[in-house]
Amino acid sequence: MNSKRIALALAAIVPSLALMACGSMKSGSSSSSSPAPAAAPAAAAPASAPSNVTKVKGLDGWEGEITGKPAPGSKFTKLQIGMGMKQATDLAGQPTDQGAYVTGKAWIPFYFGSDRHRFEMVYKGMGRLIFAGGSLGDYTGGNLIEIIHNAQEGGYR
């Protein structure tokens, strides 16, 4: 009986291995008679970040970005990268609009970091605040990782 099970297992595995070997031989073959396609001309490389973006280290070692300059009298001047959501809203007030979205890290199995989701708050005439949060099962808050100063902010996402 054991030999039948082994034979059935081999019958299922061997064709799969053969197909994998054929696929790797085909893609790894260098004796192809047709030349490799020429690389497309490179377009102008996009800037990695606008020139008005400043990377900063904030409270408790949180790293983030501040974009633009605050408008005179803006409540955003009191904010610091790394602040909790409640602390930031106590200083900046309630947003005009807000919403959340998941990041790619939410789909990584066994990822226990604090960037599984983002929460965005929009303030008309001031800008936006982006919070990172969501360590395993926690979708209630986060820490401030990005401040976007924009006096022309419309107030809606």
Task: Outline the structure in words.
With 157 residues, the chain is α+β, with helices and mostly antiparallel strands. The protein folds into two domains: 1-29; 53-149, no CATH class. Helix content is 22%, strand content 24%. The chain is built from two helices and six strands. Strands 1-2-6-5-4-3 form a six-stranded mixed sheet, with no helix packed on it. A hairpin with a 3-residue loop joins strand 4 and strand 5. It is globular, with a radius of gyration of 26 Å. Residues 14-49 have low confidence and may be disordered.
Describe what is shown at a glance:
With 157 residues, this protein is of the alpha+beta class. It has helices at residues 2-28, 85-92; strands at 53-57, 63-67, 97-102, 117-123, 127-133, 143-149.
Describe the secondary structure blueprint for this structure:
Layout: H1 2-28, E1 53-57, E2 63-67, H2 85-92, E3 97-102, E4 117-123, E5 127-133, E6 143-149
The number of distinct β-strands equals 6
Gross morphology is globular
- Flag low-confidence runs: 14-49
Query: Strand percentage, roughly?
Result: 15-25%
Defining key terms:
alpha+beta; 157 residues; 6 strands
